[in-house]
Design brief:
By secondary structure, this protein is of the alpha+beta class. The protein has 2 domains: 52-167, Rieske Iron-sulfur Protein (3-layer Sandwich); 176-421, Naphthalene 1,2-dioxygenase Alpha Subunit, Chain A, domain 1 (Alpha-Beta Complex), CATH 3.90.380. It has 13 helices and 21 strands. α9 crosses α10 (295-303). It is globular, with a radius of gyration of 23 Å.
């Protein structure tokens, strides 16, 4: 196969050339990981036409609260309207000459003023002030010159998404089977969920699709994160349960691993790391889940872990902490990652502390897992430049019912990627 690495033109049918599926074989061409032309197509065909995560409604709880985000490579900001109370998502660009109007990552404001020429907009996006408006002789179209909303904005269970394509299917239809897993996560909380203040933000010298794969890959856990498992043993954690479970294709490129693992969960699964004093309160949380949902659903909520991908670039890790993570490519071999911790509102301080400890200890940029994963994925990216080998193999488990350490969930992503990249 001829590599596409230096071809700058749009390529109809790119997906089928780069993702090849046969009866018991699934291959992905490595040019998908290194080509600038492919990345350009991904922006046009994937990030411009699928629902993308913006943030959570709890981040803008009060009128005028706002957060600034880059979504799909574009500067946006999300603000709760002072008058309407609505969640608004705007292109962060002044309608006068283009400068960004929201210049802080978060805060509260009734108006947003462009620092370049001081045009001012309210929290509903309306143009509210123009210096020396008389110079325009009454010709300013105030309605037309308001901030531009993103084409589509919808929310599900507090998760706010946007899409730059006005003709995209509705969010609930798009989420498909992922919706049921969001329900499982949100319903397990005794109160409304909120994003805890503070973020993890870091970069990685690897293609963004490698982190997609890694985030829902159970195969690498024991080998790559050996140090963490040894740490658990030293604390007295019983590792006999191992890491075992199932993988599910949730439709539209979404996928999930659902599995048992030896670590504790702040939802309602005690482990020695939490200390003996914590056991009664955690047991009480679990008893509450059983009372509300029955033993079977309570077991899934409390005892089972979930690593879920919502296509194309949102990962919800419901493991020893509840982490919401997005990532966006800035080059074929580089991405920027942002992660937030989610927790029940008004959670007991000791439970919140255990949750945040887990968030940092395992999933944080300096934790047990993330440095391992960064090393592994950057190593893959370096290996791609060696040449000689054109294809990655993603066939594990095709000859049996998918298990958590197989690759069926990755194939779900790549099939949707192939579909989108085949579009003209």
């Amino acid at each position: 196969m001829t590599l596409l690495n230096d071809r700058p033109t749009d390529l109809a049918g790119t997906g089928s050339r780069l993702v090849v599926e046969e009866t018991e074989s699934f291959r992905v061409h490595r040019d998908s990981m290194v080509s600038p032309a492919i990345l350009s197509e991904e922006h046009a065909k994937i990030f411009d036409h699928n629902w993308l995560y913006v943030g959570h409604e709890s981040e803008i709880a009060q009128p005028g609260d706002y957060v600034r985000r880059r979504v799909g490579g574009r500067p946006l900001f999300m603000v709760r309207g002072v008058k309407s109370g609505d969640v608004n998502v705007f292109h962060n660009s002044c309608t006068h000459r283009g400068a960004v109007v929201c210049r802080q990552d978060q805060g509260n404001a009734k108006v947003f003023q462009c620092f370049y020429h001081a045009w001012t907009f309210d929290s509903e996006g309306k143009l509210a002030g123009v210096p020396d408006r008389e110079a325009y002789g009454g010709t300013l179209d105030w309605e037309r010159l308001g901030l531009k909303s993103v084409a589509r904005v919808e929310s599900y269970r507090g998760f706010v998404f946007c899409c730059f394509d006005p003709d995209v299917v509705g969010l609930v239809e798009y989420l498909a089977g992922a919706k049921d897993y969001l329900d499982l996560i949100i319903d397990a909380a005794p109160a409304d969920m909120e994003i805890v203040r503070g973020t993890n933000h870091y970069g990685m010298d690897a293609n963004w699709k490698l982190l997609v794969e890694n985030s829902i890959d159970g195969y690498h856990a024991v080998s790559t994160h050996d140090t963490y498992f040894k740490y658990l043993v030293a604390l007295g954690t019983d590792l006999s349960v191992g890491v075992k479970g199932t993988a599910h294709d949730l439709g539209n490129g979404h996928a999930v691993l659902e599995y048992e693992a030896p670590w504790g969960r702040p939802v309602a699964k005690w482990e020695p790391l939490f200390g003996d004093d914590a056991k009664p309160s955690i047991d009480g949380l679990r008893a509450g889940l059983v009372e509300r949902f029955g033993e079977e659903r309570a077991h899934r909520m409390a005892d089972l872990n979930r690593n879920m991908l919502i296509y194309p670039n949102l990962v919800v890790n419901d493991i020893m902490a509840l982490t919401v993570r997005t990532f966006m490519p800035t080059a074929p071999g580089h991405m920027e990652i942002t992660a937030w911790e989610m927790a029940p509102r008004e959670e007991q301080p000791d439970v919140r502390q255990r949750r945040l400890d887990s968030f940092l200890t395992f999933l944080g940029p300096g934790g047990f897992a993330t440095p391992d994963d960064i090393e592994a994925l950057e190593s893959c990216q370096q290996g791609f430049t060696s040449g000689g080998v054109e294809w990655n193999d993603i066939s594990r488990g095709m000859a049996r019912e998918p298990q958590a350490n197989d690759e069926a969930q990755m194939r779900a992503f790549w099939r949707r990627w192939r579909h989108d990249m085949d579009q003209p």
